[in-house]
Amino acid sequence: MNVTRKIRPRASIPTTSTGDISFLLIVFFMSTTKFDVKEGVKVQLNKAVPEEQVRTTEIKLTEAEMTRLEILPDGRIKVNNEEPRVFTDEELVNLIQSKIEMRERLNQQSSDPEVRKTKMLFLVKTDSEAKYSDMVRVVDHLVSFRDRAMISISTQL
Prior knowledge:
This protein is α/β, with parallel strands linked by helices. It has a domain at 61-155: 2-Layer Sandwich (Nucleotidyltransferase, domain 5). 33% of the residues lie in helices and 15% in strands. It has 4 helices and 4 strands. It has helices at residues 18-32, 89-109, 113-116, 132-143, and strands at 66-71, 77-79, 120-126, 149-155. It has a 4-stranded mixed sheet with strand order 2-1-3-4. It starts with 17 loop residues before the first helix and ends with a strand. This is Biopolymer transporter ExbD. It comes from Candidatus Syntrophosphaera thermopropionivorans.
């Protein structure tokens, strides 16, 4: 006996409009999402000038005007010409405060109005093999004093 099977229609999901729906959902979520605006570190870059107009002037800065913080690959920090060592967060903040206060005391003793406005310059020089987190830790502490100090960041080649 031959039994014939019923041919069932296959169930299918229409996919012709999924691209449209996906696009509308993306537009909807992009237009309704609020992004947090966080204040970053203000970076002042030099303006480009033609090579003929470039003048180079060598300025000698002493420890009274500039503090050099060199971050080494092993995480130690070398301050000016001192021996490199590991700084805790508290020690780093105390170092920054003492250098800024030293500069402010010198400013108060000066009679020149231009000198009185001078802020302590911190040059953060990071070895190319140093951890990024070490540099960020130092810069984060410096940024909290940005109203009383200037920060310059560079790398070693």
